[in-house]
Amino acid sequence: MGVERLIVGISGASGAILGIRLLEVLHRTGVETHLIISPAARRTIPAETGWSVADVERLADVVHPVGDLGASIASGSFQTDGMAIVPCSVRTISAVAYGLTDDLISRAADVCLKEGRPVVAVFREAPLHLGHLRALTQFAECGGIVFPPVPAFYAGPVTLDDVVNQLVGRILDRLGVPNTLVRRWTGLGRGQAKEGGAGA
Questions:
Q1: Measured CA distances, 116 to 46, 144, 159 (Å)
Q2: Helix pair angle (104-114, 90-97), 10° resolution
Q3: pTM of the model
Q4: Contact, 112 vs 175, CB < 8 A?
Q5: How big is the CA angle at 17 (ends 15 and 22), to the nearest 5 degrees?
Q6: What value does the CA radius of gyration of the chain take, rounded to a whole number of Å?
Q7: Tens-of-pLDDT digits for all 200 residues of the chain?
């Protein structure tokens, strides 16, 4: 049985387009999505992209207010196949790493971790100081997946859209969602696989 239901959190870190593209692809593939957008992300989305928050919300099957700690996804008895926080801010990764679950993004992530479900945090910050590294280590030790949005130059990206698609495809890979966004490595001297593009 494949992936059927995922939680997507969009925090206020730069890189909102990554979360939006993830939602677009999941929408096309029929995976049920539960979306949470932080207050900071509600400012970042229109500032960085051509999207309105309302249009982003329409990509999801269910939208949960960030303050609703009584939402379905706040309980481990509500079954999901995991969660992606895309992008993930320093505040959010720290809250999840140390169990400070005072909003629904951190609570939903904490629930997934305690239930043994994958949580992919696309941590968007650079350079990193020791406090960042300690929070990331703590998150990883709790079972989280640290996924910095590092471009795959071997894929030969030409446009920013190429970079976004490759990154989103790799996030989907880590969550177990089949996709054709990724240009797969075939080895030096063998050419690049023709796989990869805007579809799912």
A1: 34, 9, 37
A2: 40
A3: 0.93
A4: no
A5: 115
A6: 16
A7: 789 999 999 999 999 999 999 999 999 999 999 999 999 999 999 999 999 999 999 999 999 999 999 999 999 999 999 999 999 999 999 999 999 999 999 999 999 999 999 999 999 999 999 999 999 999 999 999 999 999 999 899 999 999 999 999 999 999 999 999 999 988 887 655 555 554 55
